[in-house]
Design brief:
five-stranded antiparallel β-sheet; Methylamine Dehydrogenase, Chain H; Rossmann fold; globular
Length: 791
């Protein structure tokens, strides 16, 4: 979550699938010598945790897991072991302290003193966030701005709203508790109350807070912990929210009545452990939707927002493999779905747009109205008074377009997007990351997004769907980049062709336009396609500095994720400049299991998970074969489920990477999925498989990183990070992996495997903008140290 040019050459060399089947499982003298060179003579041996006999048996298989005890986070021996591991990691990195300080200073110097988002109108208010100078976290604010004109705005300021209102200050909370994570914020429809969820430990156990924006006091705190999603009823006096069970599955909807001393009323409970409950409002605030979703199926109930006591309306019963999500527009529910339809062949799992009358007796009478064009898939939608916004992908690349609303009532059968004369939002690059803004105002004709790429610092862009023009409001300031273009506060009245235009390919690129603040003159960035073991083309994005890159000699990092249908983040990050300026190459592999259309996701799940692993290995080999990265300087990074990907590839191809960073990695997948009492486990069965099923268990065993460590092999240098309060991936996953790697693999090489645990934060770390620089500096210093390359 990238280039001014998309270059996918049909003449690119491909790798033979046979190459993917080779690996090494014996000591390599060159690897061992390199590992020894990394170790200071004063460095002590790494910590050795205790071992307690523990046997696991299922489906006729039996294996020992002497580090199973680490799952007990109350065991003082675990905390003691992690403290010793942190001390070992610090000792290993002692010689790189100066480099760490230098990198952190560089990163901090690029961070502007203050950061602010452009105000976004919602009704009579302008809402915005900013980070004050010297602070780590944002402040949510607003100012009154009457939508009917400047005079009324000025009068409003003179009478009541002469200065900005601070609604929520993350910094105050962090100073009080030492940690802050705001999960969800919701302003009431009358703009008088703010409801938000707050985690002050890093465990992602969120408490509900309701603040009166007139008195500035917290007027309500729910006794229920583990609150996830929120929405207000139309009266602004009733707040609906979801809570989790002991496995962190959101399963129940409750209703809080402000000012009432009564217990919060239960509205809905989901008893199926495979389903999570989410609650939201339609954009026009007419209805509240209760969405019960598994990874592959969904069921929706609606409530009249002004009559929540009127009961739930079930839209359509859940069906295996069928998902749907809805919005409301003047008497119709518009439904994004992959449900089988006589107008839409759904064998590929593709989505289309249907609708039905917003009447209880007609909720199951769906009519297909908008179909995707060829090679295009629907990803999401947003609804406004005069426009429907569709989030699309064409050949894996993002598109946004708007269709005028309403759609006529008497249409004869569904039509393709191009038949609606849709306006495609102009973008600077076909490989941009596009993140929608809040866009809360149903009556607005302006749609806000943040556009970003590895060579484009974040741009805030407003698309006027009525006038079909766009305005670049703001571009992230990156200190120290003298060649950065200034793209602030100007309008590009540039017309875009409709979807039927022959010039429309992936999307409407605006080539060589300096208005977008594109840094491609300094940084090379393009997309290649790599052939995997079975002929699948894996998109690979490659980034490097045109000045510092050294052909055939440069070190580099391959990033991967490949799970949950999530697109790998390739958005702008100024921290990367520290590596790029030193000649490093950064590459991003969009392996199967990750984002794209539904078929790409499914092709990397359950029994097909090996596809993700082979895809990643193929991309690493490609980077070396094509001379982008020198063989002994190739590194890998994977976070969370991406850590599973990298760990599995390291087991299979011990010599492919010289170093790796596994951040809060999901490594002990087999043991974790065998215990349905652990958080998120049952929900992951649709993604990775259910090990209670023998065939799916055997598929998991084939790649589980913890269970497939190559005995006596030379493993790459590795930095493995964990968080003690991580509720998504247990801290023991990283600790067990490191202990077992050191026990089973080459004793010289494994001394360069270090574990660094955040003893205070959760899955997402500390979160502040300056503390993030310190973490990134540690990671980059580790890679530079173990690779031994610093131009």
């Amino acid at each position: 979550m990238l280039r001014t040019k998309t270059l996918v050459s049909p003449s690119l060399r491909t790798l033979s699938p046979l190459v993917l089947l080779s690996s090494s499982s014996t000591y390599s003298s060159s690897s061992c010598n390199k590992a020894r060179a990394l170790l200071s003579p004063s460095l002590r041996s790494p910590p050795t945790p205790k071992k307690i006999p523990f046997t696991v048996a299922t489906h006729g298989r039996t294996w020992d897991d002497p580090y199973h005890w680490m799952r007990n986070t109350d065991d003082p021996d675990l905390r003691d072991h992690l403290d010793r591991e942190n001390a070992y990691a610090d000792a290993f990195m002692a010689e790189a302290c100066g480099l760490r300080r230098q990198l952190a200073a560089e990163m901090r110097a690029r961070v502007p003193a203050t950061v602010a988002t452009p105000p976004e109108r919602w009704g009579p208010w302008l809402y915005y966030q900013y980070i004050p100078e010297g602070k780590e976290y944002p402040i949510l604010c607003r100012k009154f701005s009457h939508p009917d004109g400047l005079v009324k705005t000025l009068l409003g300021y003179m009478h009541r709203f002469s200065k900005e209102e601070v609604l929520l200050d993350w910094n105050e909370i962090a100073e009080q508790f030492g940690y802050v994570h705001i999960g969800t914020c919701r302003i009431s429809p009358d703009h008088k109350f703010l409801a938000y969820t707050l985690d002050t430990s890093g465990s992602e156990v969120f408490a509900l807070q309701v603040k009166d924006l007139q008195t500035k006091h917290i007027i309500s705190s729910s006794e229920n912990q583990n609150v996830v999603s929120l929405t207000w009823a139309g009266d602004s006096g009733s707040l609906l929210y979801t809570i989790c069970d002991e496995t962190q599955r959101p399963y129940k909807v409750l209703c809080k009545i402000l000012g009432s001393d009564n217990a919060d009323d239960p509205i809905f409970t989901e008893h199926d452990l495979n389903y999570c409950v989410d609650i939201t409002s339609t954009k026009d605030s007419k209805y509240i939707t209760i969405n019960s979703n598994s990874r592959t199926s969904s069921e929706v109930y609606v409530l009249n927002s002004t009559n929540i006591r009127g009961g739930l309306w079930p839209v359509r019963k859940r069906m295996s493999g069928v998902q749907y999500f809805l919005e409301h527009h003047y008497g119709f529910f518009y439904i994004l779905t992959n449900a089988p339809s006589e107008n839409m062949v759904s064998t590929s799992g593709g989505y289309y747009l249907a609708r039905c009358r917003a009447e209880k007796s007609l909720l199951d009478k769906w009519q297909a109205v908008v179909l995707p064009d060829q090679d295009t898939t629907f990803q999401d939608m947003d609804m406004f008074h005069g426009n429907l916004v569709l989030f699309l992908q064409k050949k894996g690349l993002p598109l946004f377009c708007s269709i005028d609303m309403p759609i006529v009532d008497n249409i004869e059968g569904p039509r393709k997007v191009k038949d609606f004369n849709a306006w495609v939002f102009p973008l600077p690059s076909s490989l941009c990351n596009i993140t929608p803004g809040s866009n809360n105002d149903f009556l607005s004709s302006v749609y806000r997004v943040v556009v970003s790429s590895p060579v484009i610092p974040d741009l805030t862009v407003d698309y006027d769907m009525e006038q079909q023009v766009f305005t670049i409001l703001h571009q992230e300031e990156v200190m120290g980049l003298t060649d950065q273009n200034n793209a602030n506060s100007h309008s590009l009245n540039l017309q875009s062709n409709c979807l039927s235009s022959q010039s429309y390919q992936f999307l409407h690129n605006i080539e060589d336009s300096q208005s977008w603040g594109d840094l491609s003159e300094s940084y090379f960035c393009e997309r290649r396609e790599v052939i995997s073991h079975d002929g699948f083309s894996v998109p690979l994005t490659i980034l490097f500095s045109r000045e510092a890159y050294c052909d055939g000699e440069s070190p580099g990092i391959l990033h991967g994720y490949g799970a949950y249908g999530e697109v790998l983040d390739k958005s702008w990050c100024s921290d990367r400049i520290s590596l790029l300026a030193r000649g490093w190459v950064l590459a991003y592999a969009d392996v199967r299991g990750g984002g794209g259309d539904v078929s790409v996701h499914r092709a990397g799940t359950k029994e097909n998970k090996l596809n993700s692993i082979y895809d990643f290995a193929a991309c690493g080999m490609y980077l070396v074969a094509e001379g982008f990265i020198r063989k002994d300087r190739l590194c890998a990074i994977g976070c969370s489920a991406g850590g599973l990907l990298v760990g599995a590839v390291i087991n299979m191809y011990n010599n492919l990477f010289s170093a790796a960073i596994l951040k809060v990695p999901f490594l002990d997948i087999c043991n974790t999925l065998l215990d349905p009492s652990l958080p998120l486990t049952v929900l992951d069965y649709d993604e990775f498989g259910d090990p209670r099923n023998k065939s799916e268990f055997e598929a998991i065993c084939d790649y589980s990183p913890y269970d497939n460590i190559s005995p006596r092999a030379c493993y790459p240098s590795m930095l493995v990070t964990a968080s003690f309060h991580d509720s998504r991936v247990g801290v023991w996953e990283a600790a067990k992996w490191v202990a077992k790697v050191r026990e089973m693999t080459c004793p010289s090489c494994s001394r360069s495997v270090i574990l660094r645990t955040n003893m205070h934060g959760g899955h997402f770390g500390e979160g502040g903008r300056f503390s993030h620089c310190d973490d990134a500096a540690f990671e980059y210093a580790f890679l530079i140290k173990v690779i031994g390359y610093q131009s």
